[in-house]
Structure formats: structure tokens, C-alpha cells
Amino acid sequence: MPKDLARALSSGGLSGDAVKFLTIMAFVDGTLDKAKIANVLRYAAELGVQEEYLDDIREAAQDRMQEALAHMTRSNMESITGKAWSGDANIRLLPYAGQNADPLLAQRFRNLEGRHPSSFGHAFWAHFKENEYASLENQRD
After folding, report:
1. pTM, two decimal places
2. What is the mean pLDDT of residues 77-96?
3. Which of 81, 105, 123 is the last residue of a domain?
């Protein structure tokens, strides 16, 4: 029923919001369901919505996850820095590990593990560990 939705929204200017809501609903269960993504893309086409995030989910549905993630990372970095971004965002986002690690900053990060579990610092450290943003084993330079 993309045509029905397009007719209903033709005068309200809500097409972009409708596609965003459809996109959220396609991912609400935490899975990449190609059929749901195809449905979102059908609605977007009928509603005349063309946004970069739709290109990203199209690439993800075509098993081109690395390209989609790279674009999302660049877009996020540009939104944070206000400038076009190139290069490895992990150097900026994960300065605690790897060959580019700042030793003092890495030690400060490791020290967050020992903070009280209810503290922001410990929660920050636990978030990185639980989501495997950086290998904690590699942080012990």
C-alpha cells in the first residue's frame, strides 16, 4: 500500500518522517531483515524520499555491510566535527588501544574499570568492553 500512503501524505509534507518511522520499525527487533528493508525502500521510492541512510540500509541488505558502516561512520564523524571526514575514525574514537594509543589516556581508560560500578566512568569502560569497541587485552602496552 505504498501508493495509499503516498496519497494520504501528499499534502502534509510528512513523507520523510513516515519513511524514518518505517525504517525504525524494520530494525526494531535488532535484525537485518532483507524483506523488511525492501519494503522500506519501496515505500521511500513511492513517497519520493531519497536520503543517504536509505542508501546505507540498501547496501547492508545487499551484504555490503562494510561499505554501509564506513559511510555511517564518516557521516557521524562529520556531524561531530562539522567537517568532511576521511581516514580511520577509530584513531579518534578509540584512542585507548592499538598502535596509535596514547599511553597516558589508555591508562586512564583502564583505571575506569576500578571505579564504583554506579559511576559514569565505570559505565563508560563497561560499555566499551561489552560492545567490544576495542580489545581490552590489546590495551596493556
Report:
1. 0.62
2. 79
3. 81
